[in-house]
Structure formats: structure tokens, C-alpha cells
Design a protein that fits this description.
Layout: E1 2-8, E2 11-17, E3 26-34, E4 54-57, H1 92-95, E5 101-109, H2 116-140, H3 142-145, H4 150-174, H5 192-197, E6 216-222
Length: 225
């Protein structure tokens, strides 16, 4: 599995591609953060997503798989000691300030006749669960990251990346019974010049008439407090 990530906050792109067997699976997730409660219908500025393809994720009330539930991440019980906020209550998206929405445009491609639709739907459902759990955790863990400087965040990212790569390498070395697919290291860039060199189009640079993105699209609006 090859993963590439471009960080051009408040706009980011994550791409995943499987290469170890045909057909290849491609997943692309675009993210844009805005200080609102998810009411921007054309957040990416190129083409509005059809209403039937938009999912509004509520980190308080939307169900998650039982295996991912933790009482410490239940936002109906969560309280931040540093910020004096929480727990969340019904209607929090209308009343909470400040508030930020993480808009996601998720696209995937699995081009196998007879399996494409079901497989792409399966991928979308799993990504939705991952995003919902991740944004619940982002709020529940507020006291762990609140107050960090940008330098602190970059150092934290570097440490996590090293730990992840080390764990994957150790797993591959210990499992000699069967070969495992290789995992690439992720990379992060934060300036437009680097993005242009990589051939990545940001929202400001994108041209929808020449888009080569996969066909199946769903936009997810996830609104952490």
C-alpha cells in the first residue's frame, strides 16, 4: 500500500494506492477546514457535490462500530479541564462557539466488472467509520494537544511517523512465513511551491475540466467542536 499526503493547511490531500495485485485500488481524500458548522455547500470551490452524495457526520450522536467505542471518548461524558468545555449535548452544532468543520471529499476507484459498485460502497462506509472515530478522538483528546505550538505539532508528527515506520518494518521482518505488501513512508509538505513541483493542484490551482480523479465521490462533513 502506497500512501502519500500533502499538507497545505487548511487544505490537505491524502492518497492511497494498492499495487501488490491487480486491479489496483485508488483512494483520494481531500480535506478543507473552515470555521463554520458545515453549511458551505461548495467548500472546494470547483463543483458542488450533489446533495444525495453528502453525509453530515455528527461526532456526538452518530453510531460507531462497537469495537471502537471507549467511554473516555464518549463526547456525551467528555469534559476538557484545560478549556472548560463539555460534555456535548444535542444541538451542539448550532450553539457551540468556536466551531470548525472538517470537509472531506472522498473518491475511490475499484474497476472490476461486477464488483466495482459494491466494493466502492464498502470502502466509503469504512472510511466514514474511520473519520467519525478519528474526529471523536480529536475532541476527546483535547487536553493532550491543546496549547501545542506549530513546532510542537511537527515534532509530534515526526515521532509518530518514525514509530509507525519502525513498527511496520519490525512486523515485516518478523513475519517470514508469507511476504507482506510494502508500505511506503508518508510525506508532508506545507508550501504551494513544493505542491506544484509534485504536480499536485490545490483548490486555487485546480481546473475541473482536466480532472483525472476517480469516479466515485462522496463528501463527508465532520464537525468537531
Amino acid at each position: 500500500v502506497t500512501e502519500k499526503a500533502w499538507n497545505f493547511y487548511p487544505y490537505t490531500i491524502t492518497g492511497l494506492t494498492t499495487l501488490f495485485y491487480p486491479p489496483h485500488t485508488h483512494i483520494r481524500i481531500e480535506t478543507r477546514f473552515e470555521n463554520n458548522n458545515g453549511d458551505n455547500n461548495n467548500v472546494f470551490g470547483d463543483r458542488p457535490t450533489p446533495a444525495e452524495s453528502v453525509s453530515h457526520l455528527d461526532i456526538l450522536i452518530d453510531p460507531i462500530p462497537d469495537k471502537h467505542y471507549k467511554e473516555t471518548e464518549d463526547l456525551s461524558r467528555w469534559v476538557s479541564e484545560k478549556m472548560g468545555r463539555g460534555p456535548l449535548v444535542e444541538g451542539w452544532r448550532k450553539d457551540s462557539t468556536p466551531i470548525m468543520c472538517s470537509y472531506k471529499r472522498v473518491q475511490c476507484s475499484f474497476e472490476v466488472y461486477g464488483f466495482q459498485g459494491k466494493t466502492e460502497d464498502f470502502i466509503h462506509r469504512n472510511i466514514q467509520d474511520i473519520l467519525l472515530v478519528g474526529h471523536r478522538q480529536a475532541v476527546a483528546w483535547t487536553d493532550e494537544w491543546h496549547g501545542m505550538s506549530l513546532e510542537d505539532v511537527r515534532e509530534y508528527e515526526r515521532q509518530i511517523q518514525e514509530q509507525t515506520n519502525s513498527k511496520l518494518k519490525s512486523t515485516q521482518n518478523n513475519n517470514t512465513a508469507a511476504p507482506r505488501p510494502a508500505y511506503s513512508r508518508s510525506m508532508s509538505v506545507t508550501d504551494e511551491r513544493s505542491l506544484k513541483k509534485m504536480g499536485v493542484k490545490t483548490m486555487a490551482m485546480s481546473d475541473p475540466s482536466t480532472s483525472t480523479l476517480p469516479h466515485s465521490t462522496v463528501r463527508l462533513n465532520s464537525t468537531p467542536e
